[in-house]
Write a structure and sequence with these properties.
Blueprint: H1 2-19, H2 23-34, H3 40-46, H4 53-92, H5 111-125, E1 129-130, E2 136-137, H6 139-142, E3 168-169, H7 175-184, E4 188-197, E5 209-219, H8 224-239, E6 245-249, E7 255-264, E8 281-290, H9 292-297, E9 306-313, H10 314-322, H11 335-338
Parallel strand pairs: 1-4
Antiparallel strand pairs: 2-3, 4-5, 5-9, 6-7, 7-8, 8-9
Bound molecules: adenosine-5'-[phenylalaninyl-phosphate].
Length: 341
């Protein structure tokens, strides 16, 4: 009886070991058959006490033999699993050291920087110099030298971030005109791209920090025709087609006459949207002939020289060029937005 159950158990277990598909399955067989408590072989050996001594020795031998065979079979099978596992890892973790390394991720230029560089190239090709000026300005350069004295109502047109000590964050790029006139003198052809800051509430077309591109030309006989020629050249270069513009009288103390050059809103095609405040037109390019008083304040004789100046809204230009319907996207830092350019 006992002989038979031991042989059956051995043969059945060896077959299960051979069939096992995973180390976990193998371990389950081991516990079931060889487990010290409750294992099938342990159950069999319990009955040995009832046997006669010679019979007990014979069955004991048989049991030990079966146990040894099963342990050997388990170890061999486990070895197979370990080897397969190692092979899979070696395959998976193999590195080809001769492959070229992945290069660094390339960035790209911000849409405003792209337009700024295009305009710089254009104006340099027309004989203009690119100037830079400080973002923290004195009251003199931001206002007084531009014919906006302290009691002038035009100061209220641009809400100013004042700093401790009386300096300010420049409200426009026009102070660089003054620095250019002082440093280089006439004749002068200069542009000054850069940031401007205004303490005003932010909406779809207004930011507290935005980009302008200032331009100025001083020569012997500069006229409104020169001004219009350069403005049209500028807009055609940016939009690669003739943009629809309109010219209105505009008031700035530093130009006389002054104009507002508006562009028909390219977001809505002139039908009206939040960017153009439903008017169909976007203020883009205030300009005019330089007020003789501004020349005089910078030491230039208005009897001998005159000129034009303009203050292009570079951020708004980028919005028109790329059909961006909210100015806040441009400096929001959201990569999903920026990666489109
Ligand atoms: C000026 O800043 C004058 N310095 C421009 C100028 C220069 C006139 C030289 C004549 C001669 P204005 O405040 O209109 O003007 O601003 C110029 C342009 O900057 C606007 O047409 C607009 O495109 C842009 N701009 C003004 N405020 C904001 C703002 N908060 N957010 C974005 N763009 C703005």
């Amino acid at each position: 009886m006992l002989d038979e159950s031991i042989q059956e158990l051995e043969a059945g277990s060896l077959a299960r070991i051979a069939r096992a598909q995973s180390p976990e399955e193998l371990e389950a067989v081991r516990v079931e058959v060889l487990g010290r408590k409750g294992g099938a072989l342990a159950q069999v050996s319990k009955d040995m006490g009832k046997l006669a001594p010679e019979e007990r020795a014979r069955i004991g031998k048989l049991l030990n033999g079966a146990k040894q065979k099963l342990e050997d079979a388990l170890a061999a099978k486990k070895g197979q699993f370990d080897e397969a596992d190692l092979r899979a890892r070696l395959d998976g973790e193999w590195i080809d050291l001769t492959l070229p390394a992945p290069g660094p991720r390339r960035g790209h230029l911000h849409p405003i920087t792209r337009i700024q560089r295009e305009l710089e190239d254009l104006f340099v090709s027309l004989g203009f110099t690119v100037l830079d000026g400080p973002e923290v300005e004195t009251e003199y350069y931001n206002f007084d030298a531009l014919n906006i004295p302290a009691d002038h109502p035009a100061r209220d047109m641009q809400d100013t971030f004042w700093l401790d000590g009386g300096n300010l964050l420049r409200t426009h790029t026009s102070p660089v005109q003054v620095r250019g006139m002082e440093r280089l003198g006439p004749p002068l052809r200069m542009i000054a791209p850069g940031r401007a800051f205004r303490n005003e509430s932010v909406d779809a077309s207004h930011e507290h920090t935005f980009y302008q591109l200032e331009g100025m030309m001083i020569d012997r006989e500069v006229s409104v025709a020169h001004l219009l020629y350069f403005m049209k050249t500028l807009l055609t270069a940016i939009f690669h087609r003739e943009a629809t513009v309109r010219l209105r009288p505009g008031y700035f103390p530093f130009v006389e006459p002054g104009f507002e050059l508006d562009i028909q809103c390219l977001i809505c095609g002139g039908a009206g949207c939040p960017v153009c405040k439903q008017s169909g037109w976007v203020e883009l390019l205030p300009c005019g002939l330089v007020n003789p008083q501004v020349l005089r304040l910078s030491g230039i004789d208005p009897g001998a020289w005159n000129g034009f100046a303009f203050g292009l809204g570079l951020t708004r230009l980028a919005m028109m060029r790329y059909a961006i319907d909210d100015i806040r996207h441009l400096q929001g830092g959201d990569l999903r937005f920026l990666e489109q350019f």
